[in-house]
Design goal:
eight-stranded mixed sheet
Length: 326
């Protein structure tokens, strides 16, 4: 894990850059402003820019930037992302995340996820406590690759903490931390696995304990769990939204064993307000611990976006110059 802590002067400079940008863009429309934000990122303090460029070049798997500006009069945690969107909650913090993230990659979103927003709100919602989405709280989010089903999933998952009074941990596990035996590795490198959209993508039918077969009816991709360089492979896996090809018992055992090994190697990253983590979505899987929400405005609240190192990948999939995938 690589980490950079902004000095007080650097924090003030970043806040000034964000405030100046918002002053001339009074209507917050990050999809429209993404290219302008990328240009503004060149004005970031030199120290943090050098750190991020070096971390990208070294392919650091977990990158943390701390002491980012968060409004001292931050509004209460919204009771769900829909309210956050409606109220335009914490837009300066969204901009700060995009400014920092733009040094590592290009932000993009999904048409069918949080109304096609470029930056998502991660906060607990009543009635979603046991869902398999970021609106849950009492349901553990199993270690997973973000958007595991899609060839254009992000290179990085970016999370910025606005509030986390209960020190809820983000769990992470790196493919480098696991030693697969040779036969497992061979199987995991073969296209013997299915990857499905998760519930946050508003796909139908909905997957639930009452409707366990719904996942089988969703569109999916057949691919391998391990891919890329044999000596330092990349990884995609999601215990809830991936499975072996039907009838392939050897692939089933290999995936189950891989998930167990990764869970055994998992570590905790506890984000505090003003900290952002950038997780290499090709080499690290992530999840979240359970917690009990209060719904009183003090609950955990993060901003999240996905970053791709080459924006043309999204253009190829959308067949347009769009940052939104379908």
């Amino acid at each position: 894990m690589s980490r950079y802590v902004l000095s007080g002067d650097e924090k003030d400079e970043l806040a000034r850059i964000a405030d100046e940008f918002l002053a001339v863009h009074p209507v917050w429309a990050p999809l429209e402003y993404a290219d302008d934000i990328r240009v503004e990122a060149e004005r970031l303090p030199a120290g943090v820019r050098r750190f991020l460029v070096a971390s990208r070049g070294a392919e650091d798997s977990i990158i943390v930037v701390a002491n980012l500006p968060v409004d001292e009069s931050l509004v209460p945690t919204p009771p769900g992302w829909q309210i956050a969107e409606k109220e335009g909650a914490a837009i300066r913090e969204e901009l700060v995340l995009l400014l920092i993230g733009s040094v590592l990659g290009e932000p993009f979103g999904w048409v069918n996820q949080q109304n096609g927003r470029l930056v998502h709100d991660v906060c607990p919602a009543k009635g979603q406590e046991h869902s398999l989405t970021s609106a849950s709280s009492q349901q553990q989010l199993t270690l997973h690759t973000e958007d595991v089903f899609h060839a254009c999933r992000g290179d990085y998952v970016a999370l910025m903490c606005l509030r986390n009074p209960d020190a809820v941990g983000t769990t992470v596990a790196s493919v480098e931390s696991v030693a697969f035996d040779e036969r497992e590795r061979q199987v995991l490198h073969q296209d013997r696995f299915r990857f499905f959209p998760d519930d946050s993508h508003n796909v139908v039918p909905q997957h639930s304990a009452e409707n366990p077969s719904a996942l089988e009816e969703r569109p999916h991709e057949v691919a391998s769990v391990l891919f890329g360089p044999q000596e330092a492979p990349y990884l995609r896996i999601d215990a809830d939204f991936a499975s072996h090809v039907p009838g392939d018992a050897e692939a089933e055992r290999a995936m189950t064993r891989a998930a167990e090994r990764l869970a055994d190697a998992a570590e905790r990253v506890i984000l505090s307000p003003g900290e952002a983590v950038f997780i290499d979505n090709y080499r690290v899987i992530h999840g979240r611990e359970t917690f009990t929400p209060r719904y009183d405005g003090t609950d955990r609240w993060l901003k999240r976006t996905s970053l791709v190192r080459d924006l043309r990948r999204t253009y190829v999939h959308t067949k347009s110059r769009s940052r939104l995938l379908g």
